[in-house]
From TrEMBL, chain B:
Species name: Sinorhizobium glycinis
Signal peptide (residue range): none
A GO biological-process term: carbohydrate transport
InterPro entries: AAA+_ATPase, ABC_transporter-like_ATP-bd, ABC_transporter-like_CS, ABC_transpr_MalK-like, ABC_transpr_MalK/UgpC-like, Mo/tungstate-bd_C_term_dom, NA-bd_OB-fold, OB_MalK-like
Protein's name in the database: ABC transporter ATP-binding protein
Topology of this chain in the membrane: Peripheral membrane protein
TrEMBL record, chain C:
Bilayer-crossing regions: 21-47, 80-102, 114-134, 163-188, 209-234, 273-293
Protein name per Swiss-Prot or TrEMBL: Sugar ABC transporter permease
Family classification: Belongs to the binding-protein-dependent transport system permease family.
SUPFAM superfamilies registered for this protein in UniProt: MetI-like
Classification via Gene3D superfamilies: MetI-like
Record-linked PANTHER family: ABC TRANSPORTER PERMEASE PROTEIN (PTHR30193:SF42)
One cellular component term from this protein's GO annotations in UniProt: plasma membrane
Organism: Sinorhizobium glycinis
């Protein structure tokens, strides 16, 4: 090693020795902005994005047109004359059967269904997940397995027995009954979500609280809850969109005066009587989709986390 | 003849400069270690040499061929990764041969190379297994084998031992050294572990924030660190530092620290120490003598704070000049806390840095 | 692992960990009464001739014979098979390709993902109605293409009994592929970046790396995604109701709709129970082997 001693002053030598660049390739590898790879990647993604956006665009455009314009025109054309009348009509005047008070009733029904369902299902599932993660008792895993496997059973298999149970309880056809159903069917995924989250928290924390003499509820409220805000938000996103978008349970378990927005929307659009008013239909469709869309756009990454959580296995 | 030459290499990610006008020449057959803490740019530099990252500026030569714009596969390099990066669904044999098959090398040649690599690394018995059936050490051997079959001149190691436990790490370390001695390839090895660096390297490049702080052989790095950073980074426990002022008296030089005057006349300074100059005196724990009468060296009294017996060595933590310092002595010499010791220093192997520029004086 | 015993006297077995047990009552009731009990109840009553009300008068396999003799059920099953096969294949392939494109360190990744995933936030009813409008032959895509000069162009899946199920498939893919893309992307991101580097040093072309190295490594993600899509397919109901109401005629009927119609409209509970039991069996055929591979049968995966 002849450089053994020469290297003592390398630093200064290297700092000064700059122009060592020779002819030939140097610096950043030249890449055309429009390389074939970029054209393929971005081209595909842009086409796909347009495909995804198209229905939303058509919905909005159609809802802002008058019926005469729709009859002669092109569904992709922007409105020549913007009118909000279809929106007003969809909200306040559209008819389902004999009722002509628009989607507003369905909207408020959905609110009255979604709010208690979300709160109750999350409360039940979070406590339950906490018990499963930290206070394991004999048999708990068995029930939990049944619960998770049950999530894969088609709802149609369990609908009728639930009808009977609710009828026996005297809540069949009421909002209470539907809230119970949403709590039941939200339980597998939410319990899984909370169980995995609480199990992922450092166990020492729980042990330390036990040593300090804290009990089941104290630990839940004073230690676990404050640490789990993000997972509660994820659960809320999951439940708000899920319950708002539900159709089957709404149709099966409630009477027409309590129909949620999705059911009412379907009845308005697919009713056979009268002239089809496509602009009103699209306005109604946007109104129904608005709540989950707002939740989606506001929550962003957390929504992705929520559906990813829905996809994890126990 | 240089094997790898990095010239004025810069790399920016947006506004962040990771490497700045970096120069490095590596001789053929040399074992060079890039050493630094995480985020210092050592792995980035290695990835640039491998062609896995596009450089922003400068050139890279491998075997005197400009490879700045070449794809990794065309650069004549093999690479070993920290996480092994074996293809999990393929057997060991296929892991070794896959790249060669894609490169359309004739099958007999592939077989020959795989056999040779397996023999060198003693993994013949594992050829039919899948990576999941191997231990960490075995996996890393296979990963080295994958670089070996490529029949290249330059091996790049990216923290290859960091995922292994301490015992395996020291075993494989020896093996890599043996491999280098028998193959005589150029090897560039990235690590944050100074023991690996000191034991393996022909030369070490100590890096900090994208700049090579010192490039030298291990003994020079250890004994004559170029600046305060290198001095503090190498060695465990780290070098004792005393900040003070230079004084001259009766033809002798001193560094005065909080009332204690260290006689540094014996220090081989590159430039004469100026009285009044603010300096940092660095003393390695093993360069301090405890209770040994030696002529010409003044003695300083200190009290033992804590004793850390480590078997072969005994580490004493003392208070001197108002601060804590560590001293390494032989394991059988014991000093309970509270005992008073007399210290003398071997200034010929000490280091003195300018307090402002932090460079060696 | 259960609660530590308090004091020296061992308390009653049942009272230990009482709070946790109380907290688990809703879960236990749901699991046992609704999921397990309800399923068994439905299966048992599928062997009866219940009409308007459930009655325990057993008729053996009569309901099943009637079910499999019903043209509407046969069409439902055929539709489910076609719809299921194509939505599995297309959503896996499209989802993976999109995820691979998104994984090319592209700009505006978040924007693209937001756009591809938003349909998933919508109700099937909304999706069905939008696509009903887009596929409307009088105003929708068909009329646009015709107005561009191609007057013989015909694309009205919702009014053509032969292809109506593909019209539903288009809407379903629009809603669901974003999710598959996200799951796949998460899978791709979970792959050690060193694998990519090693493949580049080895000189393996990108497509070959995907096919021979990355996809085999993502086996778990693929299976999970498959199970999620598959169990969604069996449940498909709202979309059909909104888009075609099963029409034209009975051309786009699906099993879930068959069950609902017989239980709550035709007042023929026995048929509904038999049909829902068939749905259960279909799901079991998908889930059981998966559960066995995933949780039972040892852990010999790489």
């Amino acid at each position: 090693m002849d450089n053994m001693f020469a290297s003592n002053n390398t630093l200064t030598a290297y700092e000064k020795e700059t122009r060592r660049i020779e002819a030939g390739p140097s610096g950043r590898k030249p890449r055309r902005r429009l390389s074939r790879r970029n054209i393929i990647v971005y081209g595909t993604l842009i086409v796909v994005a347009l495909y995804y956006l198209l229905p939303l665009y058509v919905m909005i455009v159609t809802s802002l047109k008058g019926m005469p314009e729709i009859r002669v025109g092109n569904i992709f054309a922007p409105p020549l004359e913007i009118t909000f009348e279809p929106w007003v009509k969809a909200w306040a005047e559209a008819c389902t059967g004999l009722n002509c008070d628009g989607l507003s009733r369905g909207f408020w029904n959905s609110v009255r269904i979604t709010v208690p369902s979300v709160i109750i299902s999350i409360a039940v599932a979070s406590v339950n997940g906490y018990a499963l993660a930290n206070w394991r008792f004999k048999g708990a895993e068995l029930f939990f397995t049944i619960l998770v496997v049950g999530a894969f059973i088609p709802y149609q298999v369990m609908i009728y027995p639930i009808v009977i149970v609710l009828r026996e309880m005297g809540v069949y056809g009421t909002l209470t009954g539907l809230v119970i159903v949403h709590t039941i069917f939200g339980m597998p995924i939410l319990t899984l979500l909370f169980r995995n989250y609480f199990a992922g928290l450092p166990e020492e924390l729980f042990k330390a609280a036990r040593v300090d003499g804290a009990g089941f509820w104290t630990i839940y409220f004073k230690i676990m809850l404050p640490m789990s805000l993000p997972i509660f938000v994820v659960a809320m996103i999951l439940q708000v969109t899920g319950i708002w978008n539900d159709f089957l349970f709404g149709v099966v378990f409630t009477r027409p005066e309590y129909y949620p927005m999705t059911v009412q929307l379907n009845n308005i659009v697919n009713s056979v009587q009268g002239v089809k008013e496509y602009n009103v239909n699209m306005a109604a469709t946007i109104l129904t989709g608005a709540v989950p869309l707002v939740v989606y756009f506001v929550s962003g990454r957390l929504f992705v986390r929520g559906i990813a959580a829905g996809a994890v296995k126990g | 003849m240089t094997s790898v030459s990095v010239r004025d290499l810069s790399l920016n990610f947006g506004a962040v400069t990771v490497l700045d006008k970096l120069n490095l020449d590596i001789d053929h057959g040399e074992f060079l270690v890039l050493l630094g803490s995480s985020g210092c740019g050592k792995s980035t530099l290695l990835n640039c040499i491998a062609g896995l990252l596009d450089v922003s500026d400068g050139q890279i030569f491998i075997k005197d061929r400009n490879v700045t714009w070449e794809e990794p596969k065309d650069r004549g390099i093999g690479m070993v990764f920290q996480s092994y990066a074996l293809y999990p669904q393929m057997t060991v044999e296929r892991n070794l041969s896959f790249g060669l098959q894609v490169a359309k090398i004739p099958q007999p040649e592939i077989d020959k190379r795989v056999k040779r690599a397996a023999a060198i690394l003693q993994i013949e018995a594992l050829l039919k297994r899948k990576p999941s059936e191997l231990s960490g050490g075995q996996r890393q051997r296979v990963a080295i084998g994958r670089a070996l079959v490529r029949d290249v001149d330059v091996f790049l190691f990216d923290e290859p031992l960091s995922n292994l436990d301490a015992k395996l790490r020291s075993e494989l370390r020896v093996e890599i050294k043996r491999l280098h001695q028998s193959l005589k390839n150029t090897m560039i090895y990235v690590t944050h572990d100074q023991i690996e660096a000191l034991t393996l390297a022909d030369r070490i490049a100590v890096m900090k924030s994208g700049v090579i702080q010192q490039l030298a052989d291990p003994m020079t790095i250890y004994n004559a660190p170029e600046n305060l950073f290198v001095a503090g980074f190498i060695g465990s426990p780290s070098m004792n530092f005393f900040r003070g002022d230079v004084e001259a008296k009766d033809g002798r030089s001193f560094v005065r620290v909080d009332g204690v005057a260290f006689d540094v006349t014996a220090y081989p300074a590159r430039t004469k120490l100026q009285p009044g100059q603010k300096v940092v005196l660095g003393l390695r724990p093993e360069h301090v003598r405890v209770d040994e009468a030696s002529e010409g060296h003044e003695m300083h009294q200190a009290v033992v704070d804590i004793e850390e017996p480590m078997g072969a060595d005994n580490l004493l933590w003392l208070r001197l000049a108002g601060q804590s310092m560590s001293v390494r002595i032989a394991g059988q010499r014991r000093y309970p806390p509270g005992s008073t010791v007399r210290l003398s220093f071997d200034m010929a192997v000490a280091s003195i840095f300018d307090a402002v520029s932090e460079n060696r004086l | 692992m259960t609660a530590l015993t308090r004091g020296s006297v061992r308390p009653n077995q049942w009272l230990r960990n009482l709070n946790a047990k109380i907290a688990s009552i809703p879960m236990i009731l749901t699991a046992v009464v609704i999921f397990l009990g309800g399923t068994i109840w439905t299966v048992v009553y599928s062997f009866t001739n219940s009409k308007l009300l459930p009655r325990l008068s057993f008729v053996g396999l009569d309901q099943y014979e009637r079910l499999w003799a019903a043209p509407r059920w046969i069409i439902s099953i055929q539709n489910l098979a076609v719809y299921g096969f194509f939505s599995l294949v297309f959503s896996l392939v499209i989802g993976f390709v999109l995820a691979a494109l998104m994984d090319q360190k592209i700009r505006f990744e978040n924007t693209f993902r937001t756009i591809m995933l938003y349909p998933f936030a919508l109700s099937f009813i909304v999706t069905g109605l939008v696509w009903q409008w887009l596929l409307n032959p009088q105003f929708g895509i068909q009329s646009i293409v015709r107005s561009l000069g191609w007057t013989s162009f015909s694309f009205d899946p919702l009014y053509d009994a032969d292809i109506v199920i593909y019209g539903i498939l288009i809407a379903a893919l629009w809603q669901g592929t974003g999710l598959v893309m996200c799951l796949m992307l998460a899978g791709l991101r979970g792959i050690d970046e060193d694998i990519w580097k090693a493949a580049r040093v080895d000189g393996i072309p990108m497509w070959k790396t995907y096919v021979l190295i990355i996809i085999p490594m993502m086996r778990g993600v693929f299976i999970t995604t498959l199970v999620i899509i598959a169990s969604g397919i069996v449940k498909v109901y709202d979309l059909v109701v909104a888009q075609t109401s099963g029409g034209p005629g009975i051309a786009s009927e699906v099993p879930a709709k068959y069950v609902y119609d017989y239980m709550f409209q035709a007042q023929n509970l026995g048929q509904g129970f038999a049909a829902s039991t068939m749905m259960l069996i279909t799901v079991a055929i998908i889930i059981v082997p998966w559960a066995y591979l995933e949780f039972g049968g040892g852990r010999k995966r790489g």
